[in-house]
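Q: What would this complex look like in 3D?
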Amino acid sequence: MANVNLRDVRKIYNQTQVIHGVNVDIDDGEFVVLVGPSGCGKSTLLRMIAGLEEISDGHVHIGSTIVNDMSPKDRDIAMVFQSYALYPHMTVAQNMGFSLQMRGSAKAEIRTEVEKAAKILNLEPLLERYPRQLSGGQRQRVAMGRAIVRNPQVFLFDEPLSNLDAKLRVIMRGEIKALHQRLGSTMVYVTHDQIEAMTMADKIVVMRDGFVEQVGSPLALYDRPANLFVAGFIGSPGMNFLSGRYAGGAVWIGDVSLPVSNPPASASEGRQVIYGIRPENLAIADDGGLPLVVEVIEPTGAETHVVGHISGQRVIGVFRERFATRPGDVLRVKFDPQKVHLFDQQSEQRIN
Amino acid sequence: MSAIESRTTMSAPMQSTSKLGTRLKRIALHAAVLLFCLVWFTPVLSLFVTTFRSESDSSQTGWWHAFVEWRPVLSNYVEAMYLTGVGRSIVNSIVLTVPTVLGTVLFSAIGAFALARMRFRGRIALFLAMVGFQVLPPQLVLVPMLKFFLALGLTGTFIPVWIIEMGLTVPFGIFLLYGFFASIPSDLVEAARIDGASEPRIFFQIILPLSGAVLASLAILQFMIAWNHLLIPLIFLGSGSLSPLTVQVASLAQTNAGGLNTLTAATFISVIVPLVLIVTLQKYFVRGVLGGAVKG
Amino acid sequence: MSSQILQLVLGLLALPAVVLAVILPGELAIRRFPQKRQSTLRPWIWLSPVLALVGLVIAYPLAASIIFSFRDATASTWVGFSNFAWAFGSAMRPVLFNNVLWIVVFPVLTAVLALSAAIMLDRVKYERVARTFLILPTAMSFVAGAVIWKMMYTYEPPMQPQTGTLNAIWTALTGKMPIAWLIDRGVNNYALIFVAVWMSIGVATLILSAGVKNIPRELVEAARIDGAGEWAIFRFVTLPSLWPTILVVLTTQAIFSLKVFDIVYVMTNGSFGTDVIANRMYTELFVKQNLGTASAIAVLLLILASPVIFMNIKQIKSGGGE
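A: Here is my prediction, written as structure tokens for the whole assembly.
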């Protein structure tokens, strides 16, 4: 087990820089999720930690060693691939034991290690099968078993659940998390799915276009997104953004004023800002409130999602109540002024 | 349901006339296919039947008389095996072909592995050169190769034939294997790399075991090429004691030694191995032919 | 005999040994270098056995043949273009003419027959069995094919019983004189070409069959709904979709007809006006012992084949192979 530290890591493909000086510290035993839209560089970063991509500049430390020039096999890591990458011509047991075989371990030792890992993952009845005889979820577990057998310092996961159907994904999510708690190893997990990131991570690294946008715990990211991108990326349905002008402790859209009880630090009078409020921070107003013109109503059973607009700007609200509203109706709503996020319109950075 | 039924009944008279037309077309189609097969198989059949006919029968009547009067003899095979040296040529053909096939598969596999799975300058150019070399007329290599192996004193051994047959087919072999190797998911190779496998191990334990079928295709194609070639063994092994079946049969045919029926027996012996292979391993043969065709 | 077995064992051991003896020590040697250096050196280690082989058997002879073609019979003195002048001279003209005949007739006949076979076979349930009959000749050597067809073409004088299959059918059907298929200059080249067609149709049919099966069913069905008959479907759907595949078959067979040797060598050895370039080259090399003219013929073959070589390269480059 070990910590992983990225120091000003860069990746340059044919003169195009795709990773721009990334710094991330992953503590020993931490579960870190790299998340971002496709093409943000998260997989490239993971592959650089694995040693599958050359590091153009900067340093990657695993434990106390700089591993830049080490081959993957010497970095003491294990990786679970999106496609699982199980060797089709080997049985489950052979797949899981391959790394130990490469290390020259004794047959009996390989057998014990494989059986130990198989027990953790309930793979015992499948050990003599071939990958083609397994279901998607079983293959996924074998891929994890192969990683466990290595007993690596760091586990790397590259979108391991994206080939599974929605239901299985939720189950496997729990299994991976349980595995982490059981083994206590350092794990780095790449996904484009923010729900996976939120539910699994100790620490999330949000990336975009080769830059790290924000690093923090899931709830810190949720509660205090550092910029507009992170605010929009984390949470579903996404945060509402309304653009207006900050004046006198409120944000004005035309003559409608939006309340802010956690105002920006510096003098921001007259500044053009983005007012962010999460859909669940809307509530039905008993009197007064803002007029939400309803367009679509989506009852999910547990909640009611209402899509509409306020002063011409699109707003989604999530309410615990059920109510009979129809498109065209005007709903009076209020925003929780404690939960307001303000961003500068120009820099898109948080200002409150 | 009822709508569909009524429609079928309504169109019934119309259908029966078009049915007759379709039927006639079908019969014509089957007849044409059968005729095609018959024309293509008759020569093979004529060879087979003639090998069992006596010299005197063959000089008086065509082979089809065997179906009228069936008087099979085995003397042609006995004569071919023991008097004309065909028995010895079987051994020579095996000695010529088997190492050629093994070498071709091995050399093509390492070349295709490097071209398909490694990135380096000149990769595309080398691959295109392989495409071009496939089409080169083999006659081109004869003179320089003959001088080269004469100088080394290796003519009269099988070594030059192995090397030349390999060299002529390896560009095709690389082309055939390249496509398959390139299609192996790179995750698999990377997983093996993380598991601690070195490049030779990845090649021998991951790539080769996954490529059984395509390697078999290359092997069967090269087996047929090498087994059936005439020109190269003719030049490098001569028509003496080292001659393989093709050379032996060709010299029997040209000199007329032993007579027609012995020749047919010798010929049949020379084709039986590839014939059995192409019928039993047709799947691999077809795969090799299709994989190797330059697609338009 | 024991020497042959010895050589067999030697070959089976030595060939893999050569490969391993290059790759394993090579991999060990580059292990000392950093990762990046390793990955630039590695391809050349793996390629070196292939490069040596192809260099020796193809690249070197290619260069040497070109040089020899400008030298005299023993490759000792320069003779300029005189070998080529001879190659295009009156001695070679009928031979070249025969090859032109091969290049035109053989690919077209093969392609037409193979295409009809592919389309017909696609519509019958016993396709695999029927296909096997067409492939059988492909498995045989051209020598065997030549022997078989020498029998098929057997000529007996008129009034004698015809023992050759073709003349038996011919005389029975038409009542005319038997034909000396391999001697009669009006037909003998075509008789030889047909042997090649008989032997080549298997592979051509396989390739075209795959092409036919690749035509999307919806395309044919759409045409049928649009009111196209069988012929119109063939003319406007099948043929245009298959054209690239047909071109592959045509060029492959054209190259083959440049190289054709075995059939002519065994059946006529070039007499009665049936000689072809490759057989002539064999004669020049081994009967007349003339390295210069033999090499000039080889270079001529290369020049004739080069359009197809470049066409293939272009096709691969534009995306066929990558």
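A: To summarize the key features: The radius of gyration of chain A is 24 Å. Chain A has a mean pLDDT of 91.
Q: Very helpful, thank you.
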